[in-house]
Amino acid sequence: MKAIILARVSTEDQMTEGHSIPAQLERAREYVRRKGFEIKSEHQFDESSIKDQRTKFELVIDEIKQTTERIALIVETVDRLQRSFKESVLLDTFRKQGKLEIHFIRENLIIHQDSNSSEIQRWDLAVFMAKSYVLQISDNVKRSIEHKLKNGERPGKAPIGYVNTRTEDDKCWIEPHPFKSKVIQRIFEWYATEAFSMDQVSQKVKEDFNLALPKGRIDFILKEPFYCGLNRHKGMLYPHRYQTIISKDLFDKVQAIKAGFHKKPFKYAGLPYLYRGLIRCEKCGCAYTPERKKGKYIYYHCTEYHAKCDTKWLREEEITKQFSDYIDKIHIPDKIVKSISNILKKSHQGKVDYYNDVSTELKGQYDVLQKRIEKMYEDKLDGSITESFYNKKLIEYRSEQSNINTKLKNLQETDSNYYTTAIYLLNLANKAPAIFKRSEPDIKRQLIKIILQNPTVNDVTLNATIRKPFSLWAKGPSRHNWLPREDSNL
Ligand SMILES: [Zn+2]
Fold first, then answer.
1. Which of 19, 34, 113, 199 is a plausible cystine mate for 98, CB 3.0–4.6 Å?
2. CA–CA separation, 399 vs 401, rounded Å?
């Protein structure tokens, strides 16, 4: 059979050894040899040049279209093929027609016309995992900031009035500075009396505490919500866990004075309204927006931005009940949990082997450098090389060693993340209904986003698609897409 090889690198891959295009091509060619296929063409995608990706993939599709015989598409892993291509649906059409087999080398998975449902399910699962995995890497930094914020921690340095310290078990912590926190309190109190301008506050700080804080700094301090218990990040506020210096009332009062009493109070990040931004109107496509009625009931209704829509208003409790009904559909029998765990283990094993290969290689390189350094030290003692040459080389070798360590660390992290995600999702699916009922609004929102796609309301009925792979384990009918949609935000 003729084979098309597809190799691909992404921006994150540049960080990891062994992912390079030549390395992928080499392994794919070896695979083709082993299978006794004949290479028809090789395609390379470099994600750092996004421009031509699409057209390149179209070339592959065209090539498959034009061949009359059955063809094998060889890719290293599922995520090489299906990270970002909408066209995977096209590939599946070719497969169903019997025109195409897809070989995933590392997953040891071949998908063809006669693939049974468990193989297809493995593919689905792998595509899903690849997507979540990729998001996980690319959002790493963003996530760790968000994670900290949601945990009530501060991602960066503490503002003036606080000090960054460490707890007994060596965790980062933030405490009020014994002296400066008092100054901050005074600044807020003085300004709140409305008797002092910011300039005058600055002067008083100088007189009373002998601290030089110019007007600009005072302004900055008066706007900092951290003092009353909130982290500000990208215009949103997140409650933090550290000791506050001033009360929320005092902070609000100061904001009102600064704004001349007219501006709106701060918006709270997703706090009061559970389903804000999650639901759309099925009739007209507009967002559903929450509104409080008679002080306590929260209703959701169509924003009617396009035109008058005349849909009913829905109580938040009613929406919760309907969401809950959806999530209740998901149940994975223990037997299936076991079998999926095995599938995951199997494809994980491939990654572990690969990790071992690469890390052995890197450790080898590290040791070579170490030997060179030791040898060089002896040469220096012998007097066969000069001190300055030794120093120059030492810096060079040490920096190479530190690069290798970084690579090793990256390798470890991405790999364990992958597995954690898989197991996490599996457990999540299994316990979703219970988690949904118990948990805080924030977790509820997360769970809905992970499990359901495009929730819409048609008058009084909530409709949503249960995402793959959760839909595989859902009882009863659901709007069912064959592959995860490109625009879905998993
Ligand atoms: Zn509407």
1. 113
2. 5
